Amino acid sequence: MISWLWRFSPVGRLATAWWAWRNRREVGRWLGFAWRAVPPSAVDRGDLVAEARLRTAFVREPRTRGAPSLTVRVHARTAFLGGALSSDVHDLAYAIARRTTGVLRVECAIRDRGRRRTPETHQHHGGVAALPPAPEHQSASSIS
Fold this sequence. Notes:
By secondary structure, this protein is an alpha+beta fold. The protein has 5 helices and 3 strands; from the N terminus they run H-H-H-H-E-E-H-E. Helix 3 runs antiparallel to helix 4 (45-60).
């Protein structure tokens, strides 16, 4: 059916299969998200767009990309984060979610995981040193 596509693809089937296997967690998460996004869905489109932006932000950051236990869901403009991560990655994930366009609130259920310790939760305090300050948005009239 799509065999013609393989003829024009610069990447072979073996390379594609290898890439998909190495990124199987992210591919699976995106497929699950796509399944929820396909109409008819009771989910608000704004929530789907915000979740797509949040997932994309997590994939762009090397420390959160492919994190095995990180779970993400957006409902009613609230991002729900879960899993067990090291405390620095935990703070980074929280900061990324706070900065994502379309997310108004973050409910964080991520547990801290460390060496020889059981997972525990912690409170989030203001800014996170893991991220640079948010970029200033320019108005359209100031761009020349």
